[in-house]
Specification:
Its main location: membrane. The protein is mainly α and 740 residues long. It is built from 45 helices and no strands.
Length: 740
Amino acid sequence: MDSDLWEKVLDPDNDYRRQLIDQVVSTALPESKSPEQVSAAVKAFMTADLPHELIELLEKIVLQNSAFSGNFNLQNLLILTAIKADPSRVMDYINRLDNFDGPAVGEVAVEAQLFEEAFAIFKKFNLNVQAVNVLLDNIQSIERAVEFAFRVEEDAVWSQVAKAQLREGLVSDAIESFIRADDATQFLDVIRAAEDANVYHDLVRYLLMVRQKAKEPKVDSELIYAYAKIDRLGEIEEFILMPNVANLQNVGDRLYDEALYEAAKIIFAFISNWAKLACTLVKLRQFQGAVDAARKANSSKTWKEVCFACVDAEEFRLAQICGLNIIIQVDDLEEVSDYYQNRGCFNELISLMESGLGLERAHMGIFTELGVLYARYRPEKLMEHIKLFSTRLNIPKLIRACDEQQHWKELTYLYIQYDEFDNAATTIMNHSPDAWDHMQFKDVAVKVANVELYYKAVHFYLQEHPDLINDLLNVLALRVDHTRVVDIMRKAGHLHLVKPYMVAVQSNNVSAVNEALNGIYVEEEDYDRLRESIDMHDNFDQIGLAQKIEKHELVEMRRVAAYIYKKAGRWKQSIALSKKDNLYKDAMETASQSGDRELAEELLVYFIEKGKKECFASCLFVCYDLIRPDIALELAWINNMVDFALPYLLQFIREYTGKVDELVKDKLEALNEVKAKEKEEKDVIAQQNMYAQLLPLALPAPPMPGMGGAGMAGGFVPPPMGSMGMPPMPPFGMPPMGTY
């Protein structure tokens, strides 16, 4: 038992070590009865690192019937040493030995990769879970593990087998094993794997087992889903009626997303989720039910989904029911309209909008959208619609639609309603075949803001409706520049066309209008109207007109020229023109109006030269104020026309006699007035002098002592003024007014 001695004899340098070992193994230890001795020997062999020799030693001690055959530690040591030094002997030791630490030795065997030996150890010690783990994890034989599980029939073993099967993708086998193991702990992994493998029949069995052990929302929800996947709808109805903790909303959404609509319908109907139920029924093409569900949901989104589905299915009656609940929302109206139009359902959309007009909550958008639809698809109804509902339309939007669809008449009406008169006028002129109406255009024209449109309208009427241009111009008379209108018509060569208009506006005395009318009158040889125009409107080039017509072939026109010269103060030209046409009366009147004595006397000489004695006599009377009597008598006497001058002389003598009489009368009246004035002045002076003499007598004398206040003895009182031949004095001794 001396460790040092053992170390010495077991030293590799000892030549007798082998012989010593043989003797110890064969003789010494088998005969020893002392555990301490055996222990010291085993320890010495281990210290010397002699595993094979130690095995021989331990086999001698343990396997042969010695006192230490059943020793626990020695058996452990034997197996462990064999595992390290000679693995081929381990299985034999396991089978022959019974008293060793199975769990620990088994783990060592696993670490040494002696899996069969480890399985044998665990199996021998009924460590079934460790045993099946060796089969599954180390040997990796699920078949042997299943066989082993069937043999031992332990839940824990089946559970391990199930987990391994699950890892290997043997989902159905794993579910069966979990059920045998009555193991509900791995339900999340099982559910995930079963769904991946699409083994819902097996999953249903498993989940029913799990429900008996746990109340998990996930389990109940997945059970419903599994029922739906295998089309067991009856079980779903029964299940949701029983107490459960399933999240029915999530399940329903999941079923809907995966197109399990029948099952989803059951769920949504049970939880009264009408919106999702309506969508589900749409997928099932149960449109009437979908409409009923949408009515209960009363959600814009739901109504739209059902409506669009009905449109796609050409269930337009139901679609209209839904649509009427959508179009009352302004934000959704356009979406519905686009959906119908994109699918070519124009008539149905128009019918929907027409029905919407009668709704209590009908808004401007419905009326406007219907107008847009009419513009696109039913133009014959557009104007009537605009006129009926002009106050309830979004006019700018409808204007754009009419412009796009080229409904010019309706577009014009909308512009007028929107007070866009410039655009209305422009539209009428640009698209007159469709949009023009004379009365309407007149009403619009007077309201436009852009002045240039007036003249554009003149051009338009000149080109397309010349017969009505005067009517238009009369309406615009207060707004247009008459000069510019006349210039437009003159350039177009149709000045005569607007003669009535020019006559109507000539009262403004515009030069261009006057000249244009005068020119027309000259062309028409209407000298009466020309003379009237000249008399009433003088703002024109008078000399130019006179020069233009002074050589006219008509005498009356030349007479008008002379008249113009007379009005312009060109007396000589007027008289010369009148003399040329033998219009002696006009010449006399012109000379008389000129106030020029020389012109009048020259005209007398002209008549004498021409031998026009009657004209000579007439000229004396017409130019009576201008002609000097001496000149007249001289010319008459020289030319033997005294008889024709006698009336003039008589008139002259009578006039001058009257004038002398008037002068004499005026002189006498002036003298009389002077005398009367001098007399009056003398009377006034005399009266003033009299007043001055009587004034001291009218004043009282100062009182004397002892007279008792009387001015004089006996109280002298002067006689009244009237008794002395003078007017009485006014109070306070003042003379009467007007005496000075």
